[in-house]
Amino acid sequence: MAIDVSTAGGALLITVLRALHIVFGLVWVGAALLMTVYIEPTAERAGADGKRVLRALYRGSSFPRLVPAAAIITTAAGLLLYEMLSYSAAISTASGLTITIGASVGLLAFLHGLFAVWRPASQLSGQLKAGETAESTLAGLEDKIRRNGRVSMWLALISLVLMAGARYIGPVLG
Ligand code: HEM
Predict the structure, then answer these.
(1) 3 within domain boundaries
(2) Which of 15, 99, 148, 152 has the lowest tally of Cβ within 10 angstroms?
(3) Ligand 1 atom 35, closest CA
């Protein structure tokens, strides 16, 4: 359903969706970057103390739910924007094509995050809360989250760069 942005209602709806998309996209990519670039490498260097801090984060905070929730809002708002602003019809323009590639990479980041990172993160959180889980199970989940989290972070970052650059890519390419 295409939206007429020259009406007050249409412009308001798009403004709200854009704000949700950009703010929660920022939370998603920011949290993934912070975790991958700073928190996990620092925890690894800190040894047993670092492991304790990371486990406290997964056991006692909303962090394991924050990133998937932000990603769901970003993706849902992105899909609505894509449909309402008829980007599929603008795919022949440099901006439309860049948004479409960015959206595809964003969807890939979402699906990869869902199955390869957030699911094991939720399992880790559950196991830690239940206690008495074998160390090898916890370490296996932590390793999976760390390895796949890096891939997910790069996908989300590439999507962000394409989205943020799409508007002016046409004039830049000339
Ligand atoms: C990591 C995931 C994502 C991030 C960080 C992100 C970020 C952004 C940003 C910053 C903009 C604003 C660009 C501008 O106004 O110049 C934008 C626009 C847009 N995004 Fe995303 N995005 C992501 C994923 C997606 C996905 C999965 C879709 C759709 C399936 C999508 C659809 C759109 C659309 C259609 C626009 C253009 C909105 C407009 O013209 O007003 N995005 N995105």
Answers:
(1) no
(2) 15
(3) 82
Q: Is 70 in the pocket of ligand 1 (CB under 6 A)?
A: no
* Cα distance between residue 48 and residue 39, in whole Å: 14
DSSP state string for 70-95: HHHHHHHHHHHHHHHTTTTTTTTSHH
- Residue 85 counted as domain residue: yes
Residue 1 included in any domain: no
First-to-last alpha carbon distance for the chain, in angstroms, is 32
Write the residue with the smallest CA distance to atom 32 of ligand 1.
78
Ligand 1 pocket test: which of 20, 85, 163 has the largest number of ligand atoms within 8 Å of its C-beta?
A: 163
Q: What does the pLDDT look like over 129-167, one tens digit per residue?
A: 998 789 999 999 999 999 999 999 999 999 999 999 999
Give the total number of structural domains in the chain.
Answer: 1
Q: Please tell me the pTM assigned to this model.
A: 0.93
pLDDT tens-place string over residues 72-102: 999 999 999 999 999 988 899 999 999 999 9
